[in-house]
């Protein structure tokens, strides 16, 4: 097959060399974006009198036919034609004849591929934002059902202070909110048109870049033609935002995995999001959470991969940049899949309220309450800390908890203790009283939930 750029060549590459250089096996995913970009380009060319109106119309009709066929997976792509751009150009010529060869006037594959990637990431980023909102809604719904469910809060994975389970879930809500903002913010840089930058230097034809940008819904055009064809920052931004999002999902995965363990038993995952073992009949494994945790690695890899590809590349286009695509496609698939899995998993997970509450009663996470109690009565906090530390030690030696000690034991430690310490030690009261802004007090948690809901009203 003759190459579309074959004029200067006397010898053709062997098939395996062509295969090594080709990107059609993955960039076929840009088929719709490539066609949309070409339609806008053709319309601009005919508006500017570079193509006749009839030629413009013919090209547009041919491209729309190709789009319809693409929708039915009927387009015969060939590795010999290297990439999606040359494949479509060749198919267009097949469709409408020699006029197809005029489409590439005042354009290069370099601005063309950049345009495709911008269009693709715009669509995908918008879809991911919607999926984040779906997951946020599930988190809020679960949190609202568990505002007053108390559980141990941890630091160093040691029980620290009792908290509301709703509060814990809402922490992830706010992480996702920041992820969403990062994607939204990145759209400003995604939604810029490189089209018309040509190979690197612009073009001699009297084109109108603003017109094609407007047709494609871009907010602006790249100011510099070299930058337009060389910039992949917008993909890096997508990959880094996605890495942070995956890190958040991975942290929640980890918690879900140990909450679902026999040691914790805080939650039970729905059968639909767990799998069994091929050998151990009793097993119910949190595979989906584990997979999300595991897939985080490939998203980080995609980010580091592209950073490394771009490092040291001279201006302007270099073939290295063809390596920008697979990691991006893979990240879209991974992030999209993970968010969908998580929304379903959150919706269906069962919370073992009693187990959580029992856990919080059988520990020392109310020790801070006691110290606060004394501080409230005027004892410097540092001294209060010391007194309570000694009481905890006494309990550990006796094998009991603070609330099991008789009042005289407390009085021995300091006369400041009164009968009301028992209610202060109650974990439910302890949570309820943490009513500082953003704290775990039930009133605060409900406030945060109400605020969260306003975000998608
Ligand atoms: N397949 C190429 C890529 O993805 C398209 C741009 C090719 N441009 C070139 N001058 N060889 O990067």
TrEMBL record:
Domain Argininosuccinate lyase C-terminal, chain residue ranges per copy: 364-432
Pathway: Amino-acid biosynthesis; L-arginine biosynthesis; L-arginine from L-ornithine and carbamoyl phosphate: step 3/3
Chemical reaction(s) catalysed: 2-(N(omega)-L-arginino)succinate = fumarate + L-arginine
SUPFAM superfamilies from the UniProt entry: L-aspartase-like
Pfam families to which the protein is assigned, alphabetical: ASL_C2, Lyase_1
Molecular function via GO: argininosuccinate lyase activity
PANTHER family hit by this protein: ARGININOSUCCINATE LYASE (PTHR43814:SF1)
Protein name as annotated: Argininosuccinate lyase
Originating organism: Bacillus canaveralius
Gene behind the chain: argH
């Amino acid at each position: 097959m003759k190459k579309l750029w074959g004029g200067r060549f006397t010898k053709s590459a062997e098939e395996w060399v062509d295969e090594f250089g080709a990107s059609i096996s993955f960039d076929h995913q840009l088929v719709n974006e490539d066609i949309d970009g070409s339609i806008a380009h053709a319309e601009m060319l005919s508006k500017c009198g570079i193509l006749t109106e009839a030629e413009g119309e013919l090209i547009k009709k041919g491209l729309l036919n190709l789009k319809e066929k693409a929708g039915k997976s009927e387009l015969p792509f060939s590795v010999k034609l290297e990439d999606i751009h040359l494949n479509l150009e060749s198919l267009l010529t097949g469709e409408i004849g020699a006029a197809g060869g005029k489409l590439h006037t005042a354009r290069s594959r370099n601005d063309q591929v950049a345009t495709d990637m911008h269009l693709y990431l715009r669509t995908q980023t918008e879809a991911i934002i919607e999926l984040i909102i779906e997951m946020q809604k599930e988190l809020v719904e679960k949190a609202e059902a568990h505002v007053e469910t108390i559980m141990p809060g941890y630091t160093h994975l040691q029980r620290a202070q009792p908290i509301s389970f709703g509060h814990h879930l809402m922490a992830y809500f706010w992480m996702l909110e920041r992820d969403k903002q990062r994607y939204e913010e990145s759209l400003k840089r995604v939604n810029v048109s490189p089209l018309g930058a040509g190979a690197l230097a612009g073009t001699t034809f009297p084109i109108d870049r603003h017109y094609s940008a407007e047709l494609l819904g871009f907010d602006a055009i790249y100011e510099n033609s070299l930058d337009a064809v060389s910039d992949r920052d917008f993909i890096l931004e997508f990959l880094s935002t996605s890495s942070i999002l995956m890190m958040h999902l991975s942290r929640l995965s980890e918690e879900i995995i140990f909450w679902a363990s026999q040691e914790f038993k805080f939650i039970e995952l729905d059968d639909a999001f767990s799998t069994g073992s091929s050998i151990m009949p009793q097993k119910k494994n949190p595979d989906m959470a584990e997979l999300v945790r595991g897939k985080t690695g490939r998203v980080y890899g995609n980010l580091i991969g592209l950073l490394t590809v771009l490092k040291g590349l001279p201006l302007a286009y270099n073939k290295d940049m063809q390596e920008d695509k697979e990691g991006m496609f893979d990240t879209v698939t991974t992030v999209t899949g993970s968010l969908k899995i998580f929304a379903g998993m959150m919706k269906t997970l069962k919370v073992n309220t009693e187990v959580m509450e029992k856990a919080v009663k059988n520990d020392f996470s109310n020790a801070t309450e006691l110290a606060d109690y004394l501080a409230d009565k005027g004892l410097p906090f540092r001294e209060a800390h010391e007194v309570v530390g000694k009481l905890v030690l006494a309990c550990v030696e006796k094998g009991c908890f603070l609330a099991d000690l008789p009042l005289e034991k407390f009085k021995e430690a300091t006369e400041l203790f009164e009968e009301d310490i028992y209610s202060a030690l109650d974990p439910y009261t302890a949570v309820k009283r943490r009513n500082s802004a953003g704290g775990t007090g039930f009133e605060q948690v409900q406030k945060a939930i109400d605020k969260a809901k306003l975000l998608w009203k």
